[in-house]
Amino acid sequence: MDADSADTNGASDGGTGGGAAPAPQVWPSLRARDARALIRFLVEAFGFEEVVAYGEGEFVAHAELAWPEGGGIMLGSDRPTPEGGEPWPGGPGTFSGYVVTADPDALHARAAAAGARITMALYDTDYGSRDFAAADPEGNHWYFGSYPGAPRPSAG
């Protein structure tokens, strides 16, 4: 799928059908054993952009990484559960997510050059997407592809 066809089914505007993409309202979140190293890897290998990283030294209380094509993730250092709270649902290395990109071939080359462990080589799906998968140093699984999701129903 090329960038022009992605634009016609809503990838450039969050699927809203008109104008700029809305600010992210759903944030996949993960914890890391070494959050600062994971941030550096996600920026270098996959092209995320660090927006903020709060914390001192190697501890990251909260970080936000933007995906240049829209959306983003939040992450922080793994830490003990606060008294009275429920444990974090997944430990470091248990995250999995699909990230839309207009150029999976270039992103695959970037990720491989940066040392990402490619877990699934580039391939074309039967629904028109071009995908690959990689793991980060923490063990999280990232799936990248050109499929932007089905067009959203129009409001009204």
Tag the structure with descriptive keywords.
156 residues, alpha/beta, four-stranded mixed beta sheet, 3 helices
Protein architecture, described:
The protein is an alpha/beta fold and 156 residues long. The chain is 18% helix and 29% strand. It contains three helices and eight strands, in the order H-E-H-E-E-E-E-H-E-E-E. A hairpin with a 5-residue loop joins strand 6 and strand 7. It is globular, with a radius of gyration of 17 Å. The N terminus is likely disordered.
The counted number of beta strands is 8
**Outline, from the CA principal axes?**
globular
Largest sheet report: 4 strands, mixed
Arithmetic mean of pLDDT: 87
Number of helices: 3
Helix content: 10-25%
| Contiguous uncertain segments of 5+ residues | 1-18
Strand content: 25-35%
**Pattern of helices and strands:** HEHEEEEHEEE
Which structural category fits the helices and strands? alpha/beta
The radius of gyration over CA amounts to 17 Å
Neighbour order of strands in the largest sheet: 1-4-3-2
Distance between the termini: 29 Å
